[in-house]
Structure formats: C-alpha cells, structure tokens
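Appendix B, record 7
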Amino acid sequence: MLNLVTRGKAKVGSLYAKTLISLNGVALSTTFTILNFIAAAFGTVSFDRAVKIAKVPLVGVVATTGGAVGVWQNPEAVSVMIDGLLINTTVKSTGAANLNAGSTPTSAATSSANLIDTLDVGTATVTADNFTDKGTNGKSRQLVAAGKWVTFTGSADTTGLLGAAYISYVIV
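Structure tokens (predicted):
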C-alpha cells in the first residue's frame, strides 16, 4: 500500500502543464485538473465548497407566525454562507400581504427579515432576490449555523400564495 502514487518530472507545454503520475506502477498522464482530483482523494485539496442550491416550497396561509409560509433548515454539519435568495411566486396572495425572509438561530417558528424585508406578494406574482429587492433590513449574505433556519413569514393573510424560494449557499 505504500507508494501508491508517485510523481514524475513536470513538463510545461505551451497551453497547459502535464505531470506523469504512477498509480500502482501504471503511468498516468494528466492535466493539473485531474491531478487536483487525485490529490483530493489523498486529502490535500477540498472539493466540498461548491455552490449548492436548496428549493423551498412557499405556500400561503392565514397565520402570520414565523416560518408559516415556508422554512428551510441548514442540512450541513457546519455553518453555511447564504450568498443569494431568489423568490418566484406563481400565484399571488389573495390578501394584501408582504413576505419576509431571513435566517434565525432561535427556531423554525421565528420570523426574520435579514435576507428580504417586506416583499409585496399580494399585488402580483413576483420574481425577486435579496440583492435588488431586499427591502430595509435585507442583506445580500447571511451566515447560518448547522441545523439553524431560514424562515418565510407573511405580514398578513397570505392565503392563495404559491411559489418557491431558491437558497444559494456554500459551506464555510
């Protein structure tokens, strides 16, 4: 099991660099991209930092309690950085309601507006994000600890509202 991977001399070409690698005595010729994947298998490079996107169904309700319209719990074993939140409603609320979205360490039933604050979902269907439509208290990024939540809460009766939220995040 020792010396499973050995590296040869690096040769630099005009467009990319190649390295000869021997795996159990079999010579492999790779680009640096493939070399990085091999190195990852041995723990020297991490590829778990890709952007992930979670889809959260949004369904209007009479209640205005925190998370009543939708809730997402961080599924990762570590904190994540939310770097984008998109909301797409396909049916507007029958009531004149606004939607708040935000992260909270307290509970899935706690209202928060630190991603999107006061998004009108009662006038028409919307496609919104936390960059151009963040409202007064919304921010473009939020850190969410492992097991904590992002809640979606109506300011009034949101009955009839249908849509989805797309949370873009990376592991930190």
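Remarks on this record: Confidence is low (pLDDT under 50) at residues 1-19. Residues 115 and 138 are 4 Å apart (CA to CA).
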